[in-house]
Amino acid sequence: GSQDRRAARAAARGVDGPAAQMTAAAHIAHILDPLVDPRLAKEDLYWDKVLGSTSTTADQLSHDYVRGCKREHVDALDWAGDKIMVCSKDNTMRLYDVERGEKDRSWSGTWMAMQTDPNNPHIAAAVAWCGRFRVFDTRSSTSHAYDLDLRKASPSLKEFLCLAWSPDSQRIALTNRADNLVLLDLRMAQQLKLERTYQCAGNEVNSIVWSQDGESLWLATGGGSPAKLLVVPTPSLSSEGVVELAAHQHFCLSLAASPDGRTIASGGNDCVVTMWDNKHLVCKQAFGFATQGVATLGFNHTGSLLAWGTGQASGSSGEKNLTIVGANTGQLYLQDPTSAPVQHLKWHPKKNVLAYALNPTMLPDERDLQRDRRLQHRDAAVVQTLKVPDRA
Questions:
Q1: Which among 68, 98, 67, 80 has a CA at the least distance from the CA of 139?
Q2: Does some domain include residue 160?
Q3: Is the pLDDT of residue 25 over 50?
Q4: In the chain, which ranges are continuous DSSP H helix?
Q5: Does residue 171 sit within a domain?
Q6: Distance CA 25, CA 28 (A)
Q7: Tens digits of residue pLDDT in 330-359
Q8: Alpha carbon distances (Å) from 147 to 110, 132, 142, 299
């Protein structure tokens, strides 16, 4: 068929990455694949029992919030072990001790994106709007492995928006306002290498994520209809190897990779979440539970639960909630109303605890709390947590 001919032409040209995988045989193999990993079958049954009953859901969940967190717009959110890292609009990145309810330490800078090392919860990478890039130890305010101005390598390396650390911790991908994809090589200690760049011409990049095998980067784009996902081979970033997938009617807003490496989830401005087979590059499932754009989403540490946040960035009307579904079963487990749109969320790397950040401009303030006794301090908190019971 045409896909086989395309694969043959790709092989003849030496094209690597996702484009070389899209064959008719691969599509058939996908259809024959089991939709649910047998290893997760027992876990799915557990979630059906614990979360599937509306009468017991409220008793099984534990809501809390990060005390002492600044009432500022959050640009990035991640876990550093059992602590929470937050990049705020007030030009400060802070580490919060959730159990003690206090700020642990902070780092000044116009930080726009941040992520902890997938293999070391005490190491984090951050990039600033001005082009400053840093890899540092979260247990110290001064210790760092890299701290440099990327503009010295190229004046265009500034105005960064997204950062994604490769699963093996050897590379970091960045995107900026000019929609350049930049790959940094961290394999040599104390010697950061600007490995390659890729220009996403005509594609506004809203989110990036690595496949779990580290062989490709997925980019959520906007600006066209239908909106596309770009699957870019790594580390080559070869334009010939790029695959475009029509994923949403409107902007692709958010991405997440399942820890088992099988699935990439995409959230769109069309209120739909699509689930993509990472190997065969076909859509295998879609969720239509949202009525607002899906701004952020993520898998739990086992890959059995998928959470997302919805709501417009401005305006008080429309849906504002946190949704959790069974990633394998498609079962809707929770739609928890929030007092403002969820802008960022991140699961704990080893526990079923979800941290999420709300739009501070739409939260109740202290005067609202005094006027309405039904409101609690958690209702006005920017960063909140939701704990789902772990299996015994």
A1: 80
A2: no
A3: no
A4: 2-13, 24-32, 41-51, 54-60, 366-371
A5: no
A6: 5
A7: 899 999 889 899 999 999 999 999 999 999
A8: 14, 7, 10, 31
Query: Rounded CA gap, 217 and 236, in Å?
Result: 11
pLDDT at 48 over 50: yes
The CA–CA distances, whole Å, from 241 to 28, 206, 222 equal 22, 21, 20
Residue 307 lies in a domain: yes
The total number of structural domains in the chain stands at 1
Q: Rounded to whole angstroms, how far apart are CA atoms 183 and 219? A: 13
Contact in structure between 272 and 290 (CB atoms under 8 Å)? yes
Place of tokens 């309810």: 101
Place of tokens 């969720």: 287
When pLDDT is cut at 50, 70 and 90, the band that residue 225 belongs to is confident
d(C-alpha 89, C-alpha 102), whole Å: 19
Q: Provide the angle, in degrees to the nearest 10, between the axes of the packed helices 2-13 and 24-32.
A: 120
Residues counted in the chain: 392
331 assigned to some structural domain: yes
- Give the distance, in angstroms, between the CA of residue 21 and the centroid of all CA atoms in the same chain: 25
Tokens 């990039």 belong to residue: 127
Query: Which residue is listed with tokens 């081979």?
Result: 233
Helix, strand, or coil here: 20? helix
Helix (H, G, I), strand (E, B) or coil at 3: helix
Residues whose CB is less than 8 angstroms from the CB of residue 148 and which lie 6 or more positions away in sequence, other chains included: 132, 133, 134, 192
| Residue 369, both tokens | 């709390």
pLDDT greater than 60 at residue 93: yes
Strands 144-149 and 132-137: antiparallel
- For 56, the domain range is 42-65+289-392
